[in-house]
Design brief:
InterPro entries: Gfo/Idh/MocA-like_OxRdtase_N, Gfo/Idh/MocA_oxidoreduct, GFO_IDH_MocA-like_dom, NAD(P)-bd_dom_sf. This is Dehydrogenase. It contains 11 helices and 14 strands. By secondary structure, it is an alpha/beta fold. The strands form 2 sheets. Strands 8-9-10-7-11-12-13-14 form an 8-stranded mixed β-sheet, with helices on one face. The longest helix is centred in the C-terminal third of the chain and has 15 residues.
């Protein structure tokens, strides 16, 4: 990834004029809450939400508020429509904004189905507009640091990775209802599947999954397991749950020269000292006690020199999705989340749901 430097906010370049659709936890608390601190890059010009109190609060902040998205997308002062409505509305609201001549950013999930995601992508091409997918977790510090460690080679050839997001939540909001696009697969799923596809470093060859409804209200899944096998042979094991009372490490990485475990802000590393060369092994068909002398085991008897350490999460490079969006929109830099990557996330989601009661 190429880091966007602060100098990309250039004097004389106007901020992007944004209209936010949906003023809930994502739209108001996260999107507006972050954008108000970036006035050189973004101005929230207008918002829309069906709830009158939310519109009133926005107006108290000096923002035009519309009752419907149909009204807001016609606002000539808006360049970019930021869609933060319920998951089930992303497709329809994206289509409305594109047809009105607006570029769009879509909160995850991109769409509920792969077919919808493809149609949005094709519509953007037809209208000559741009779509930006908010896979903001691509820039989480722990994910970036794990990627750096894998790329360093200290763990050798990485052959298996496990990612988990565990909690115990007797959740009862709209995110538990299938009709609104609820469930962990469309909630945490797009983020963690995106991580998994990046860590796989290969096209997907096989997908295995299991979805369950365990403790939440509603009819959507709140526990899921996905296993991705790449064409390169690497396995990525994803587990997302609102029904697990004891959390597991969020990352476990296995390589031919060591392993990594990450919990909270703590990375535990155990790897072979790179300054100590390994002997060339030759297989011996003899009885272990006779063939290997004092060891009497199935090991070679070689003395391995391990390095074990704990380090805080602190990647060498950090990124911010709003900076990336600004640099792409105003300065024509490539956007880090490419359309083909976002489409692949939704394709995997379709594969995972296929044949289940959660379709």
């Amino acid at each position: 990834m190429e880091q966007v430097e602060k100098s990309t906010v250039q004097t004389g370049i106007k901020p992007i004029r944004v209209g936010i659709a949906g003023l809930g936890r994502a739209g108001w608390n996260a999107h507006y809450g972050e954008l108000k601190h970036k006035p050189e890059q973004f101005i929230v010009t207008a918002v829309t939400d069906p709830i009158a109190l939310r519109r009133q609060i926005a107006e108290e902040h000096g923002i035009r508020a519309y009752e419907t998205i149909e009204e807001m997308v016609q606002d000539p002062d808006i360049e970019l429509v930021d869609i933060a409505t319920r998951s089930s509305d992303h497709y329809a609201h994206g289509m409305l904004a594109l047809a009105a001549g607006k570029d769009i950013q879509i909160e995850k999930p991109f769409a509920q189905t792969y077919e919808e995601a493809l149609e949005l992508s094709k519509a953007a091409e037809a209208y000559g507009r741009r779509i930006f997918i908010r896979h903001n977790r691509r820039f989480d510090a722990d994910f970036l640091h794990v990627c750096e460690i894998i790329a360093s080679g200290m763990l050798g050839n990485v052959y298996q990775i496990r990612l988990t997001r565990h909690n115990y939540q007797r959740r009862a909001d709209w995110q538990t209802i299938k009709a609104f696009g609820g469930g962990q697969l469309l909630n945490w799923g797009p983020h963690i599947i995106d991580h998994g596809l990046q860590l796989l470093e290969s096209p997907v060859k096989q997908v295995w999954s299991d979805l369950k409804h365990v403790v939440a209200a509603g009819d959507a899944e709140d526990h899921l397991k996905i296993i991705l096998r790449g064409e390169n042979g690497r396995i990525v094991d994803l587990e997302i749950s609102g029904g697990i009372a004891i959390n597991s490490p969020t990352y476990i990485v296995y390589g031919t020269r060591g392993a990594l475990s990450l919990t909270d802000n703590d990375i535990h590393l155990r790897y072979l000292d790179p300054n100590v060369p390994l002997a060339t092994l030759e297989v011996n068909p003899g009885t272990p006690g006779e063939a290997f002398g004092k060891t009497g085991t199935y090991e070679s008897g070689e003395q391995l020199v391990w390095i074990e350490e704990r380090i805080p999460v602190k990647p060498e490079k950090t990124f911010n999705i709003w900076d990336e969006l600004y640099a792409s929109y105003r300065l024509n830099h490539p956007f880090q989340i490419r359309m083909e990557e976002a489409l692949e996330v939704v394709r995997i989601i379709d594969e995972v749901k296929k044949g289940t009661i959660f379709q």
